[in-house]
Design goal:
single chain; alpha+beta; four-stranded mixed beta sheet; 656 residues; 12% strand; 45% helix
């Protein structure tokens, strides 16, 4: 339960942020409170009198989130008649609910009894008392009908749904998905004398929060030993819901095995297995609910959250280099080349690492659904922020390649952006897509991400099967479009490079002694058989595509078509491929002479004994990708020189 203690510490360190809104993100909630979506906002005064004409339907979704007090039971209620202490649905708070719906479904009596108990305590708040005084009159639904908030037909019936024209739909049916009598209502409480009160909204009033917290603390009598804080205090028998998102019913702690095979035969009561203080669990869960939408890596139902216990921004180990740069530099200028990206990424990482003092605590937790109602912790680590930064930086140094893609943060925010080149590590999602395709199901995606997390955070060895799957897909360019193949090849090369270099060095975290044998740059001196065959394949690809480009023909090359067979039977396939290449070499003439000479030099370096049909290792992809990158750089350099020559020529003409 170290994760719960760290979350508790985080809440304690961030007390000053309780209730503070940051854009559309949910605030850090006070304890004994939860957030509900309200549908209707009514207005009363401090004397408990209705203010006609001021109630409204909350049409804007952003305005519906309402912080409400909740009891231990109401925070986890399902279909049982357990009212919230202050704001709730009409069936709980409307005394005249039985005039319009089945009186048996009304829980008004339970609600009034609970609210009266709060108002009868020393901790009552004037606004809460005003709400009680008004609701005791039992006229809420009649008042809402009079103000045209609830829709009533001419016959006097209150319909459950709207059957008329869509354009004539009353606002209440637009916000209530089912019956309008299920509407959730919150109250403004304005001064009765008409003076202005900036704290008219009880759900935003800190004094109302404190009033309920003090009241709840005064009620707690079930005391026990809190296993998290190690002291005796009021304990909780319920665990909060809505952890990952609103409506999420999965809980992290549960003990309801009180029949049949009770507690697996080991315990007689839940507290013998685990016991946690109510304030402890409230603060820990509230901190978790606050952190997840702010900075968690979300992969379907799977959550991977890294956070610092002082509440400041933590580095996300699951982000690729592109998204990490956008995270470290909130508004980065456009990137035009991989080299430019690499330089800026290094600078941004150095800036982040330089701001770390070395003693900050850092935690990483992974959550996933065990069953629809239960949440499991599949990964948890505590370390200093400096250590995590070192490991994440090592991952990005050793698993990087020339890649091309969109920043996911831009997609989430809806910003239009263009794909950009970058030199860095791919994200776990990109790795899974490269290994299993973009149609990999959620279960496979979550399982693969779960296996990759220890590689980044703990420096664990990269799974060989994942690397081989990506290499196998990258050997079949005909099975995907050019954009997907480009990304798949880059990710496969990043994984091959890391896997091979880690094995040579017998370590996964880069330090001063780490030796990089397989680099991102072309190594003309490398004599590995697979590497040389890969370079030969790149020459075949370049010669044919160059010739097709001159004739303005667009189609896949023979090298692309036979690449899968080439990787399995290189000597036999190369013979066929070379014969298919000869017409293109003849067509290029002197323009292809340089390529032919260099290709012959590469082939001649493969020993006769190794020029066989033995399958190539995945290293051939490094030779292929590096050689193709070299051709691309030469092309870019030639374009640059031509542009400079044209520019200087234009200036010369102007000077004449």
């Amino acid at each position: 339960m170290g994760w719960m203690q760290k979350l508790y510490e985080t809440y304690e360190n961030c007390q000053s942020l309780v209730g503070v809104k940051e854009g559309e993100l949910p605030p850090l909630m006070p304890i004994y409170h939860t957030i509900q979506q309200a549908h209707v906002e009514a207005v009363i005064d401090t004397n408990g009198c209705w203010r006609p004409g001021r109630a409204k339907v909350l049409a804007d979704k952003k305005d519906r989130a309402t912080l409400i007090p909740c009891t231990e039971q109401s925070s986890v209620r399902t279909s049982g008649p357990v009212p919230h202490p202050l704001f709730d649905g009409l069936k709980y708070i409307a005394g005249d609910y039985g005039n319009y719906r089945d009186p048996k479904s009304s829980h008004y009596a339970e609600y009034i009894e609970q609210l009266s108990a709060w108002c009868g305590s020393p901790y009552v708040h004037p606004k809460v008392r005003a709400i009680l005084e008004y609701l005791k009159k039992g006229t809420l639904m009649a008042d809402l009908i009079r103000d045209n908030i609830l829709y009533r037909e001419e016959s006097g019936r209150l319909p459950e749904s709207w059957d008329g024209k869509k354009e004539d739909t009353p606002p209440i049916f637009k916000v209530c998905s089912k019956d309008q009598a299920d509407a959730f209502v919150r109250f403004w409480v304005v001064p009765a004398d008409g003076s202005e009160d900036l704290q008219s909204r009880p759900w935003e009033d800190e004094t109302v929060w404190k009033s309920f917290i003090d009241y709840q603390n005064s009620l707690q009598t079930d005391r026990g030993y809190c296993y998290v804080l190690g002291k005796e205090m009021p304990v909780s028998s319920f665990s909060p819901k809505y952890i990952r998102r609103p409506g999420d019913g999965a809980k992290l702690i549960s003990a309801n095995d009180d029949s049949s095979f009770t507690y697996r035969g080991r315990f007689e009561t839940p507290s013998q297995a685990f016991c946690v203080g109510r304030e402890t669990t409230e603060k820990a869960h509230n901190a978790l609910k606050w952190l997840i939408p702010r900075q968690a890596y979300v992969n379907g139902d799977q959550i991977i959250l890294s956070w610092r216990t002082d509440g400041s921004k933590a580095i996300d180990p699951c982000e690729g280099a592109l998204d990490l740069l956008f995270d470290l530099e909130p508004d980065p200028p456009p990137v035009t080349t991989g080299e430019e990206f690499a330089a800026r990424f290094t600078k941004a990482m150095a800036g982040y690492g330089g701001n770390l003092k070395g003693w900050e605590d850092m935690c990483v937790i992974g959550l996933d659904s065990a069953t629809p109602g239960r949440l499991s912790v599949f990964y948890y680590r505590e370390m200093q922020a400096k250590d995590l930064f070192t490991r994440v930086k090592s991952w990005h140094d050793t698993c990087s390649w020339e890649l091309y893609g969109f920043p996911e943060t831009a997609w989430k925010s809806g910003e239009k952006t263009r794909p950009m080149p970058f030199r860095g590590a791919p994200s776990p999602k990109s790795i899974v897509k490269a290994a299993y395709g973009s149609r990999a199901d959620d279960k496979l995606m979550k399982s693969a991400v779960q296996r990759l997390l220890p590689c980044i955070v703990d420096g664990a060895p990269l799974p060989e099967d994942l690397m081989l799957c990506a290499a196998r897909r990258a050997s079949n360019p005909e099975a995907m479009d050019k954009g997907e193949y480009r990304m798949t090849l880059g990710v496969a090369c990043a994984l091959i490079r890391k896997y091979r270099n880690d094995r040579i060095n017998h370590k996964q975290i880069k330090d001063e002694t780490y030796r990089e044998v397989w680099t991102m740059a072309l190594n003309p001196e490398e004599n590995d058989r697979s590497y040389l065959f890969g370079r030969a394949l790149a020459y075949a690809q370049q010669i044919e595509s160059y010739s097709l480009g001159l004739s303005e023909t667009s189609r896949s090359t023979n090298a692309e078509r036979v690449q899968a067979a080439f990787s399995q039977h290189p000597a036999k396939t190369w013979k066929t491929l070379y014969h298919q290449l000869l017409p293109y070499l003849q067509k290029l003439g002197d323009r292809g002479k340089r390529y032919r000479e260099e290709l012959d030099e590469v082939i001649s370096r493969i020993p006769v004994s190794e020029f066989s049909n033995a399958p190539l290792s995945e290293i051939y992809l490094l030779g292929y990708a590096c050689q193709m990158q070299k051709f691309h750089e030469e092309k870019q350099e030639n374009i640059r020189k031509k542009m400079e020559a044209a520019e200087s020529s234009t200036k010369g003409e102007e000077n004449k």
